[in-house]
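Look at one such:
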Amino acid sequence: MGAVLTGASSYAPITSASAASSCQVARTDIDPDAYTRSDREKLWDQTREIAKTAADKMLKCARERQPGSDVFGGLERAADVPREKTDATFHVLVISDFDQADPDFRLSKYQLETQAQRDTAVEELVTGRGLPDLPHTTVYRVGFAMRGGKTNPERVEQMEQFWQQVLEKEVKVDVDDGYGA
């Protein structure tokens, strides 16, 4: 369960069916072009609070209506967000446990100990779905493998390698795990 936040704060819920989720909130510009205003910091604080409230609303809806994690579907939704500049870096914050569990793919059913096993899982995830088109994108992962103590350290490492392969080698985005650190 989680959310993908993109660009000027567009939101995509990471639920059991992110791409088709009914949990939606409007885009929020958290950095409005108000450079001529003397109270810019106050404006930023207000827009960030609006964005936080919207994200909280979307997450509450997602938890109640569609529990589960569809990170890949969330990234597909992020790829549809209009960009102001197509050659500028697009920043996507993904807040999730990354335990992909959508109607077509459950990461928990795959063994991920070896590269061959991870290759099989990656192939199963991307087959038939295609890849999100996210050129010039950095994905910030937050909440990775945070499942209330249900994931052992070995599995966390294996999931990290799986997602690194999916995101960097397949989707071809940069991954940054330092957000909020």
The CA atoms of residues 84 and 95 lie 23 Å apart. Helices lie at 40-65, 71-79, 115-126, 153-171. The beta strands are 2-6, 10-14, 90-95, 101-102, 105-106, 137-142, 174-176.
